[in-house]
Amino acid sequence: MDMDDETSGARWPDRQDWPTSRQRMGAQQAASKLLDALAPERPPARRDEPASQVLRVRSPRGCVLQGARTAVSVSWFPPLPSDAALGELQVIGWRGVVSRPGQGRQAPGSAEAVSTEVLVPVENGVGDAWLWQSADGKQYDVSALTERCNELLADPGQLPARAS
To answer: Disordered: where is this region (predicted)?
Structure first.
């Protein structure tokens, strides 16, 4: 056994348990597909378009759905190359107006996080489809999670309470 085998064996004991590059790319594409469903990237609105009741703001790694008095933010945290995980998705329910990415801070107390949920990508086993699994074991496909996020705009307290 040479020195390289010893070092890599100590650093990554169960290499076969690590995600493949195909799995990492699949999880990244699943996150992009979800964010596109929640807040599609589109050109600036025309003047004559009616204003939507929900402002949908997209950033490269997440989105904010802002209603009149509530908001939902969805953030994707991809894994580091040294992680054995596939990344995680954080969904936060808010009361108030959330400052958008790249914008200055809103007035103090303008938004309060009332609930949060962390989901991880899991392979569906059917085709290239991925599911999102919560800590309690519930699994959502893209359309179900999109619907859940839209429901949270009406009542952000549906998510598990935020740990203080």
So the answer is: 1-54
Going by C-beta distance under 8 Å and a sequence separation of 6 or more, which residues neighbour residue 88? 76, 77, 118, 119, 120
**Quick one: pLDDT band at residue 135, thresholds 50, 70, 90?**
very high
User: 36 pLDDT exceeds 80?
Assistant: yes
Identity of the residue numbered 27: A
Residue 21 DSSP label: H
Judge contact between 97 and 111, C-beta under 8 A.
yes
Distant-in-sequence, close-in-space partners of 151: CB < 8 Å, separation ≥ 6: 158
Q: How many residues are there in the chain? A: 164
Distance CA 88, CA 129 (A): 17
